[in-house]
Write a structure and sequence with these properties.
alpha+beta, 9 strands
Length: about 250
């Protein structure tokens, strides 16, 4: 009886091992999760996204652009220009221009890069619309600039004068471009025309978006699945990529 019992026990153990092996094989055969690959893999040099002519028009007295700090220039970059045209006793014309670029990789957990970029794009527009101290805020869609774009314009009154602020937020594939442009007449000089500033900002935003596309060239491959999680730039997206009307007079 003891021998029979022992044989029965061994037989049951073998069955358990076989079932465990089958389960393990089934798990290893399961397909890995996939996500649509991000179209753009890099960003252009931020201080080179605008032509010399455009910089002369928007910030005529600016010297070289100042590139912002970034722990990964392939996902986050920005450049700014300050211009002060001193007209002596007649006052001065001030301009500040900033271009911020933020790229999102696809992530098997969080989703495709273009959808993550869309979320950040919407946030950037909302942030511009709710800028502290803004007066007369207006929002307008902008066509021909990436996949989608909006212009938010408003006035900011400061001790130096009235600043006319334009923020253009554009998304092209998995990259969000935020362009801030403001101007003011200081020390008695006249306030710049807001419509002229908006036109200049729109032109510059189109150039910046085109630079993103050109930097990636034929390497952009939208729609290809990705099976490995990537570190997304959205981990730091809560910190706004731009600081509109920061009072850099």
């Amino acid at each position: 009886m003891l021998i029979a019992s022992g044989c029965s026990s061994d037989s049951g153990s073998d069955d358990g091992k076989d079932k465990g092996a089958d389960a393990s094989a089934s798990q290893s055969a399961s397909p890995s999760p996939t996500v649509r690959a991000a179209a753009y893999k890099k960003l252009p040099e931020p201080c080179a996204v605008l032509s010399k002519k455009t910089l002369e028009d928007l910030a005529p007295k600016a010297k070289a652009g100042k590139e912002g700090n970034s722990d990964d220039i392939s996902t986050r970059a920005n450049c700014s220009w300050n211009s002060l045209d001193n007209n002596g006793v007649k006052g001065s014309q001030f301009r500040w221009l900033n271009v911020s670029l933020l790229r999102f990789d696809s992530d098997t957990t969080r989703g495709p890069g273009d959808e993550l970029a869309k979320e950040y794009y919407d946030k950037q527009v909302r942030d511009a619309q709710s800028a502290e101290g803004a007066k007369g805020t207006r929002t307008e869609p902008l066509t021909g600039t990436g996949d989608e774009a909006m212009v938010v314009r408003y006035d900011l009154k400061k001790k130096e004068g009235t600043f006319k602020q334009q923020t253009v937020v554009a998304r092209v594939e998995n990259v969000v471009v935020t362009l801030d442009y403001n101007g003011a007449g200081l020390a008695g000089d006249k306030t710049p025309d807001a419509d002229d500033l908006v036109k200049d900002a729109q032109k510059a935003a189109k150039e910046a978006v085109a630079s993103v596309t050109e930097a990636n060239g034929a390497a952009a491959a939208s729609g290809s699945p990705s099976t490995s999680p990537s570190t997304s730039a959205s981990q730091s997206a809560s910190a706004s990529a731009s600081k509109p009307a920061s009072g850099k007079a």
